[in-house]
Fold these 3 entries.
Entry 1:
Amino acid sequence: MNETTAKPAGADAALVIDGPAGRIEAAYDAAEATPQPVLAIVCHPLPTEGGTMHNKVVTMAARALRESGIATLRFNFRGVGGSEGKFDNGDGELDDLRAVAAWARARHPDKALWLAGFSFGAWVSLRGAVELGAAALISIAPPVGRSWEFTDIALPTMPWLVIQGDADEIVDATAVSDWVTSLPSPPELVEMPDTSHFFHRKLMDLRGAVKNGIRGWLPQPPAA
């Protein structure tokens, strides 16, 4: 099944970041509200199913973050769009995330690093969260029970939000719920009713879930 994609609304700042497999295509977008001292990297879904940084779920999550005062950095994993290399089942993609995070920290040393990801991107960002010292994590439809291993991941202790549609036709929502509740320090789980994997007709609800979920994490509390 192809990932639903769309170019993000408005202009974004195209970037080229040096990665372990060559050029990484990326896009940086400034905060749209009073800026917070935070930069969020948002990871896209499975490349072999058409996932890119222009996926609608990815761009909506990034929009919600920007509307909360957080700058965002999206990028294409190796072999996607203008990024060089080829799909590496998650290991090379984690290396790509490491390179993007290093770029972000070098150029924005005053900002805390947050990670977010959708589907395959949720798995990659979860795997990197502890190592990269992320200050917060957002996992949208993490692919629990599919081909990706979750048992040996260093679990985050930072604020962590999981968003899952209960009508997901690709990721088993019950498997996600069972996994979350089995964790020693479970993240906050938001279960969205009548919601498919790609959040068809529910993207605005996703926007609200992200904004509400992170509101209490913001270093500078938003105005009432």
Entry 2:
Amino acid sequence: MKRRSFLKQTALVSAAYPLVQSLESFVPVAKNPVKKLFVTGGAYDLATIKFLASLTGKQNPKICFLPTPVGDSEAHINRWFAAAKLLPIQPFVQKVFITSGEQKTSFEETLLQMDAILVTGGNTLNAITLWKAHGIDNILRKAWEKGIVLSGPSAGAICWFDEGLSDSRPIHLTKVEGLHFLKGSMCPHYHTEKERRPILLDWVEKEKIMPGYALDETAGLYFENETLKRVVAQNATDKAYRLTLKGGKVQEEVMAAELLPGE
């Protein structure tokens, strides 16, 4: 399948990056923090990461890369650190395929000290299954409730919703269950992969999948406390859609988007 590269024009870094071994002490949680979630349809480049960093409200925020959907791919991790060198952020990575000898801090200690957590694209079903086995699903909910910004493209977008249209299984696109942070369904790569739109429209109308949202590659949605606050995109071609069911017929609404500044 043709997809835009996870990060545009970023060179691979040859050196390996170890897991974070020591982190600062937990900071007190603000009273009634705002729950923040930002998702995109597939692309995740410097402009999008800058926008993510701005949502933290902090200078030089700590952003943790969570590459579970791509099996902790070293290539993706290297690209992340290469891109981070060009941005005013503190980059971290949390692998799941680890041993006790490699990591002496818990998943919870690592993730709950971040300002934002960025989940990659990849296999949604595998990522959620592993997170549940390790209890990371509950840690991510704690992070969200603490006000840590959660984010991701593709699988990293689907995972936060009730369900989504995913290529996590062989042969055909299927419905996968998400973490239920946000209501409804999510479909990334809405026009990049031609089979997605007709399948999604048909399934929503037949009530095989919940109504929800669909995103082209650079289109994104920003939620606060489960309420959609901003719709963004990097160009006028990529769009965000809201799908509803009225009178037994699916309705596809194009949502007005603000253009993100370039890199």
Entry 3:
Amino acid sequence: MLSLARKQLARFAAAAFALLPLAVHAQASSIVVASTTSTEQSGLFGHILPQFKQASGIEVKVVALGTGQALDIGRRGDADVVFVHDEAAEKKFVDEGHGIEHRKVMYNDFVLIGPKADPAGTKGQDITAALQKLAAANANFVSRGDKSGTHAAELRYWKAAGVDDKGTGYKECGCGMGPALNMAASSGAYVLADRGTWLSFKNRADLAVLVEGDNRLFNQYGVMVVNPERHPHVKTAEARKFVEWVVSPAGQDAIAAYKIEGEQLFFPNAGN
């Protein structure tokens, strides 16, 4: 009996040892995606990443920051993929040799949020006219001030509006989209937001969408692999699988299917 038990124990140990490389491989099958707060806080990643893992076996670890910070993470080689929304900054990232296989993924739009009463009279479809009114009224305005894609867009709109002095009510929080919306809600301020995060935002207080529909508010998202020639440790094969999946019919369908209360947050356009 003792000899039989020892043989069974030896067989079990041998089987466990044989499975060890598989376990190590499975544990290693993960990538880091540096992305924006909007993709994370809107709930999009929570919706699509389990589908990608099921399709590929690859786990995705998301580092959600403003676009500028996400690109910096890519420059340092601390991520395998960058998924952001600032086309000019993305192009520079690729042109400088930090990223490869840059692809369009999806879009939504920016909206100007503010108190329903709209004391500055901004409501309409012209973002530059709205910003001019905010500056003239010294209205409370929360800027993310974090070099994110949303912050970069906001600065472009102020410049297009010809506004240098944004008024005494202009404040930079150096924070993500969710905290900026919370600050606006608690203080009755105006804020520029991406529609995805706004739709998923629960603490709206007296806030409402005031400006939308301006073509300049278009918000494109792109994805790219961090260049392995700069950072040889990048998991290029797995990163490419992620990029290929989000632009594939399966990934694009997953993005389109994400809705809150029946409203679609992001619109796939990888084919464009």
